[in-house]
Amino acid sequence: MSDTTQYDNDYENKWCPGCGNFGILNAVKKSLADREIAPEKILMVSGIGQAAKTPHFLHCNFFHGLHGRALPVATGAKLADHDLTILVNMGDGDCYGEGGNHLLAALRRNINLTLLVHNNLVYGLTKGQASPTSRLGFVTKAQPQGVACQATNPLALALSQGAGFVARGYCGEIEHLSQLISAGISYPGFSLIDILQVCVSFNRENTYTFYKDRVYTLDKEKYKADDLHQAIEKTMEWEDKIPIGIIYRKETRSYTDELAPLQSGPLIKQTYDPKKIQKAISAA
Amino acid sequence: MSIDVTVTIGGEAGQGIQTVGDIIARVCHKAGLYLLAINDFESRIRGGHSFLQIRISDQPVLAPHHKIDLLIALNAETCALHKKEMAENGLVLLDVENDAEKDDSKENLPEEAREKNVLPITFSQMAKDAGGKIMTNTVAAGACLALLGAPFSAFEHILKTTFAEKEKILRNNITAGRSGFDAVKNTDFAKAFDWPSDGSAKGKLLSGSQALAFGALAADCRLAAFYPMSPATGIMIHLAEFMDQLPVLVEQAEDEISAVNMIIGASYAGVRALTATSGGGFSLMTEGLGLAGITETPVVIINSQRPGPATGLPTRTGQGDLLFVIHASQDEFPRFVFAPRSPNQAYDTMIRAFHLSEKYQVPVIILTDQYFNDSLWMTTREMAVPEEIERFVTTDGDMSSPSEYKRFKITASGISPRALPCKGRALVRVTANEHGEAGHMSETIADRNTMVEKRQAKTKGMTGEMKGPKGYHGESETLLVGWGSSDGAIREAVDLLRSENFDVGGLVFCDVWPFPRKKTNDALSRCKRFITVEQNASSQLGLLIRQQTGHSFHTSLLQYDGRPFTPNWIAEHTKSVLEEIR
To answer: Mutate which of B429, B435, B437, B447 to disrupt the A interface (most A C-beta within 10 Å)?
Structure first.
């Protein structure tokens, strides 16, 4: 195992003590170290929220953009240079709320990005409103009588849209999560890793104890993750037992393999040829 | 101009108006004539009323004419709708079903079209006889060209290039074209003219959308992301035609928000990137525009205007977004705004836009409109592709210590050396939050003030890049002042007015932001008064000029009906204004 300190930086971390994001950050570092990806070879793209601050605490290239819009930025960067290794960090509100349409499109495109959703079932940065994954009845200051709509099931949604790599991790299982992230990075298409994240400040229900009592690891020997119907069933487990691991994975090709102009290499590496352009324009 | 003929082809959407227009335009172009074709259509695929209007001349044509010399009516409604626009000796050809019972062919005309200048022609029947009703357009084109005095060989040549691969279809079309041609050969048409015999095209025939697409290619644009929206979609369609031969990718995004964020991501990663939309899509993009502003990411955004607000008139033209795009997004940051006056200038502006966007690391907005994008124009000079593209990018080799690279390093010009991510040891850290030089979030007073001032500092250099408005008889007592695609109509209006001894000139802006204050002051300093000519309801350019220079417009000629200006409209209204002063 290689050194994770190469990804440390001295930018002051202001996450709450005990925040589940720390576990996720450590798992990211571990995965990058295991895969021996140097800091300067990583591009992390994020949206807005506590999760989206992750790249500031990692020694790497990053683009910390707008709420909900990390996937389009990452898609643009990948289309420009498909040799890049791009990790996308978003929160549940960021990805499943504000950025919902972009998630649908990313699933359809199957572009080779690894999306880590820090899913704490609540809004942290804006101090405790309901998120798309908050349960029916979840009480907040903004929803004092409880949330009146049902929670979204992001993994089932992704599967229904033809996603090729769907996994769930838990911020309390760092080694396991780092392996999921590594598997996501090596997957040739779009990989969605929904990460159960504890919010110690605004979610008093889904605590470390709550997850400790419920989370179980899918046994790689018994659960092959290659059956879509079985996978959809797995995404429905929640109340008593919550599975983590790779829920579904299928053979795939990346979007960038399908596009004609990218067949001669990444756009950024192709050459500007004024004569060829002049000829093409004159013939049009 | 010894030749100045306007032909209009009208009918329902789906009747093939475009095909007739296209054939006529290509025959004229090939013969060495000048032309401008405008497209007037409703937001529907079938039915309604659409028309294509072609103005043909032996001199460059800058704007549409207000009178029709020859109307090809594919239905009776077209006659009624365009009756008032017909020129004195104008002629209408109406497609009718022939009724053999009636001796006088005029009796075949529907009642509403029984005017003396309406000539019934059995276009559809002739097409059926030649092999299929689908060739009605070819028959109509043949009749039109015969009336204009075109040699049949010129028509036949274009048909041959159109149907080169399909021998039987070509044969039938030539028969169809011939029958239309022969049907009117004994009809006198006052505007028939002698066709040039040298037969060399005087420029390239292309739409405004094509000019913009070509400019993007010449500027080395590699990624174009968009969400379909009239009248901007054509630009992307034309770019997509090159995907199999040039390193350019056109990506249809899930919405405009995604499109603008995609090009920001692509530009951050190192390729030149473009999006194109109309006002409604641009509204959705304003958040992303601000992102490009604070992250200092170069992007080029085309806003092809149509009347609004909201859906407005989807397929029509307007100039209502000038003040919007100058100010769009919360808070302030520098940006360029250009409104090209012609297809050649649009092509050049695209190249300039990408260059300046990367030189100053700011977004560039290009304002065009439906009239500009959808019309068929002729270029007046060659469209040259730059030999080299300067990218203004720094690499590890340029740095003494790449590990200490700071993306937002403070400099006197406000421009920080721009490195690309994952291309060396220098880490490129960028955030939409306010930040320090290294690109990490910061809320300190010092960082906030420094970064605002750094971004604003670019304005000085940017203003130096701006060209002043272009004068046309700019020394005149009264100046007509406009921007963008109104240029041609303003210049022709000036010609009309000067031919009646009015001391009137024109002044038309392409570079509008940062506002070229000094150059505008100079251009306005000698006139006695200026009148703004714009396609919006408040004279947005006039307000901007007043804000920036203190000069007030005498009055404004404003049109916001969604239709393009005609020189006559501008000239007549200018006359009324000037006569009032007398």
So the answer is: B429
**8 Å CB contact of B261 and A41:** no
* B171 lies in the same domain as B299: no
Q: Is the predicted ipTM greater than 0.95, yes or no?
A: yes
B112 vs B77: CA distance, rounded Å: 8
Domain total of chain A:
1
**Least CB–CB distance from A261: residue in B249, B254, B388:** B249
In this structure, what token pair is assigned to residue B161? 């290039």
Closest by alpha carbon to B122, among B112, B133, B111?
B133
Cβ–Cβ of A105/B254 closer than 8 Å? yes
Neighbouring residues of A26: CB distance < 8 A, sequence distance ≥ 6? A4, A174, A178
3-class DSSP assignment, residue B371: helix
Domain ranges, residue B269: 205-378
**Residue A80 is encoded by which pair of tokens?**
């420009």
In a domain, B387, yes or no: no
Q: Which residues contact A103 (CB under 8 A, 6 or more apart)?
A: A71, A95, A96, A115, A154, A158
Considering the domain architecture, whether residues B503 and B558 belong to the same structural domain is answered as yes
Rounded to an integer, what distance in angstroms lies between the CA atom of residue B532 and that of residue B424? 52
Q: Which helix (H) or strand (E) holds B367?
A: strand B363-369
Residue B522: other Cβ atoms inside 10 A: 14
Range list of H helices, B224-311: 233-240, 256-269, 279-295
> Tens of pLDDT along A247-260?
999 999 999 999 99
How confident is the model over A164-221, as pLDDT tens digits? 999 999 999 999 999 999 999 999 999 999 999 999 999 999 999 999 999 999 998 9
What total number of domains does chain B contain? 4
Q: What percent of chain A has pLDDT over 70?
A: 100
Do B172 and B250 share a domain, yes or no?
no
Residue that is last in its domain, among B378, B407, B432: B378
Domain that residue A93 falls in? 5-283
Co-location of B16 and B70 in the same domain? yes
Do A107 and B295 form a contact (C-beta atoms < 8 A)?
Answer: no
Distances (CA, A) of A130 to A93, B34, B234, B439: 9, 64, 42, 31
- Chain A residue with CA closest to B207: the answer is A284
- Residue A54 · residue A22 · CB < 8 Å: no
How far CA A173 is from CA of A27, A53, A176, A181, A220, in Å, comes to 9, 21, 5, 12, 16
